[in-house]
Amino acid sequence: MSSVSKNFVVDIWSDYVCPWCWVAKRRFENALASFPYKDSVQVNVRAYRLAPNHVAESMVGALKRKLGSPVSAVSMMSAVKQYGQSSGLDYRFETMLFGDTADAHVLVKAVEDQAVKKDLVEALYEQSTTQGKSLFDRKSLEAIAKSVGVSDESVLLAWSSQDLRFQMQEDERAAAQFGSGVPFFVFNNSFSVSGAQPQEAFLQALNQMYLESTGEDESFSGQVCGLDGCN
């Protein structure tokens, strides 16, 4: 198979309190692992807040309010938990929190080392979703960051830099051009895939990205997922 000199870029908008985003992240990663040109793909983590300026509360309470009934909330949580388990993810809604994740997004942006950044993103999902750790307390965020090797300098930068907060807001403004809802994936700034798609759909999108780079094209559309599921 011939080599590809062109670098590919995938931009991913997501939020750490989005129930579907961790599932989508894992499915995309599994698809990318089987993509022949994975070493030529640059993945950019983009910020998106489902609840800007929202005081932290229990995830269960937030879902009941969002969906309008306890029955709907239980049904949605059961579905996410099931899909999570199929991807090796442990969702514990009873200890999860929901709110404004600005500090978590800014903390990720403060990390320059791409390997450490990747580990931090995964840790934010795992620690908040499985371990019930808060993403709304800076001491809690610092502990999560240091557990994956984030430097003290990066943590201090996150809490002091207005430019990083501006970058977060720029990500959100860019997302608004495409619509609303996360997770949201943009491939080579050419086409998008929305929602917690199956692994096969993400691989199809990666292959389309490659085909477009070689002058071939195939159409692809995805679902939109929000806090209450996929439409």
From TrEMBL:
Domain of life: Bacteria
CDD domains linked: DsbA_FrnE
Signal peptide: none
InterPro entries attached to this UniProt entry: DSBA-like_thioredoxin_dom, Thioredoxin-like_sf
Residue intervals of the DSBA-like thioredoxin domain: 9-206
Pfam name, any one: DSBA
GO molecular function, one term: oxidoreductase activity
Entry protein name: DSBA-like thioredoxin domain-containing protein
Organism encoding this protein: Pseudomonas fluorescens
